[in-house]
Amino acid sequence: MSNDNNQEVNQPLKVPKWGYIALLFALVFFSGFFHGVKGWQAALDFNTVNGTFGTMKDAAKATFTGMGGAGARDGFLFAFGLIPACMLALGVVEVVDHLGGLKAAQKLLTPLLRPLIGIPGIAGLALITSLQSTDAGAGMTRALRENNSISEKEKTIFAAFQFSAGGTITNYLSTGAALFSFITVPIILPLIVIFVMKIFGANVMRFYLSRVMKEEADSNGKQIAG
Amino acid sequence: MANKSLVDVFVDGARKGWNIGINSIIPNVLLAFAIIQVLKVTGLLDLLGKLFTPVMMLFGLPGEAIMVLISAWMSMGGGVGVAASLYTAGKLTNQHLSLLLPAIILMGAQIQYMGRCLGTAGVQSRFYPILFGISILNAMIAMQIMRLFA
Questions:
Q1: Contact with chain A for residue B108, Cβ under 8 A
Q2: Does residue B50 sit in helix, strand or coil?
Q3: DSSP class per residue in A105-129
Q4: Measured between alpha carbons, how far is B100 from A194 in angstroms, rounded to an integer?
Q5: Cβ distance A86 to A174 under 8 Å?
Q6: What residues of chain B lie within 8 A of the CB of A69, using their CB?
Q7: Which of A95, A93, A92, A225 is nearest to A157 (CA)?
Q8: In the predicted model, is pLDDT for residue B101 greater than 80?
Q9: Does the structure's ipTM exceed the value 0.90?
């Protein structure tokens, strides 16, 4: 696993042209930009394609879960109703990934890593991976450190980015999708806030380490890399 | 990879969604609903609500919302489940859920990710406290940001 990662992170990234189109599609589809729009554009909105359940004949407001339920039984039916959003979201993400959309995202993000969170562009693949899987992202981060592609300080900053909202995309579109039909804002908005805060958190760590490292270097010459 | 049709690819992804649904969402949400039911019938939910009202008021949330954050910290599915349960019980509104969603993800599953993220990446354990602190801070700020939009 770690050998594969070492090879992958050192190769220049090739993005198929469909990758950018797929990424653009994903951004529009999940942004809620066309939510509530009449006409063909409505097909470009996640919540529209996810649709609605039919209602009960007796109580026009109740779905198949009925009204006034409680406890485990109510929770089971409620949770059952959450699964389509999760299946639809991960199905679309799989297609976008297959067409190279995540590679496109990686290519676009790579030059931003240094200015945004102070880690080298070589960590781009690990970053994109960490958005899909906490475990795989952390594994690749370790590999980057082991072949000295990133310093100990950079690894710790990177960990602060990954640790808050780990597996961001997958978790947001699977677990978080359960709340999509109840929120009052476009579904892309909380995701943007999450990314902004992840970057903010990494920079808190960056600031903290700059101070700690300086203090340690001043007092006994010890470095965080050790 | 190249000989797979897009239909197959979509179905593979949807199958992942189904597996997450039955292995994670349903058990987590069911547990959350059961716990909320226990808290409700014992009167503890109202008590917790009253106790945490002053703190949660700072975020524009009712006191009961503290349960969402605590359970999210242990597992994201749990946080979503408690949020959904409090919503169906009429304790949380759509606006409250909008505030809570990014917070659930940002401080979610930290207990698990301590091993799966920090442990795997080999982060020095002396940084664990500040890493937990950063995530919780991220969640707090996110709730305040969401108040501007929700």
A1: yes
A2: helix
A3: HHHHHGGGHHHHHS--GGGHHHHHH
A4: 11
A5: yes
A6: 88
A7: A225
A8: yes
A9: no
Chain A contacts in chain B segment 45-74 (CB below 8 A): none
Look at residue A127 in the predicted model and tell me its pLDDT: 94
Q: Which pLDDT score is estimated for A164? A: 96
> pLDDT, tens digit, for every residue of A142-172?
999 998 999 999 999 999 999 999 999 989 9
Domain assignments of chain A as residue spans, ordered by start: 2-220
Spatial distance between the Cα atoms of A10 and A149, rounded to a whole number of angstroms:
9
Q: Do B34 and A75 touch (CB under 8 A)?
A: yes
pLDDT at B112: 85
Which amino acid is residue B76, in one-letter code?
A: M
DSSP 8-state symbol, A91: H
Cα-based torsion angle of the residue sequence B30, B34, B40, B46 in order, rounded to the nearest 10 degrees = -60
Contact state of B14 with A87 under an 8 Å Cβ cutoff: yes
Largest alpha-carbon pair distance within chain B?
59
User: Which of the 8 DSSP states describes residue A39?
Assistant: S
State whether B137 and A196 contact (CB < 8 Å). Answer: no
Q: Using an 8 Å Cβ cutoff, are A211 and A174 in contact? A: no
CA dist list (Å): B130 to A151, A193, B118 = 19, 21, 12
Per-residue model confidence as pLDDT tens digits over A47-84: 888 877 666 666 555 667 777 777 888 888 888 887 88
Q: CB atoms < 10 A from the CB of A54, how many? A: 8
How do residues A175-218 score in pLDDT, each as one tens digit?
A: 898 899 899 999 999 999 999 999 999 999 999 999 887 776 66
3-class DSSP state of B55: helix
